[in-house]
Write a structure and sequence with these properties.
mainly alpha, about 160 residues, 3 helices
């Protein structure tokens, strides 16, 4: 059997290790959550850039199609600026605008979702860190209750 002083010192050491471990675990979870949130925010920015590029591409494709329609109407001897040719051009311009807006809206929606996820991830990291601190405090209190301080003070006091 261990003498009371040795048992008390082992309890203190064990408690200290547990407290440190709980705090380190909470801090590590917080750092991991912050890193993931940073990645989500970077991806949100990329989604907006991609959306802008897609919108630009849609505009260029629409302009090319419109140019072909005008050239075809002119080659067939008709007026490119009247009648059914004008109606087709209007529809093409409308579809082009719609495609641009849809590309931007899709990018904004993805970015919004990623930013919301980043915020939730950061919140969870803070919560995990706090949980580690609370767990450490609980461990310290339990360790203090188990420790025979009277034996230590008698031996060293």
């Amino acid at each position: 059997m261990c003498e009371p002083v040795s048992l008390a010192l082992m309890t203190i050491a064990s408690t200290g290790i547990s407290v440190a471990g709980s705090i380190k675990e909470g801090n590590a979870k917080r750092r991991a959550a912050d890193a993931q949130a940073d990645l989500n925010e970077q991806q949100a920015g990329r989604e907006l850039e991609i959306a802008a590029l897609n919108a630009e591409r849609d505009e260029e494709e629409g302009a090319l199609l419109l140019g072909r329609q005008i050239a075809l109407a002119s080659a067939q001897g008709g007026s490119a600026n009247s009648g059914s040719n004008l109606l087709v051009q209007r529809q093409t311009a409308g579809r082009t605008q719609l495609n641009k807006e849809l590309a931007m809206m899709t990018g904004r929606d993805k970015a919004t979702t990623l930013r919301a996820n980043a915020s939730q991830t950061r919140d969870q990291g803070r919560s995990d860190q706090t949980s580690g601190q609370i767990q450490a405090l609980g461990t310290a209190v339990k360790g203090a209750k188990k420790t025979d301080f009277k034996a230590i003070t008698t031996a060293f006091g």
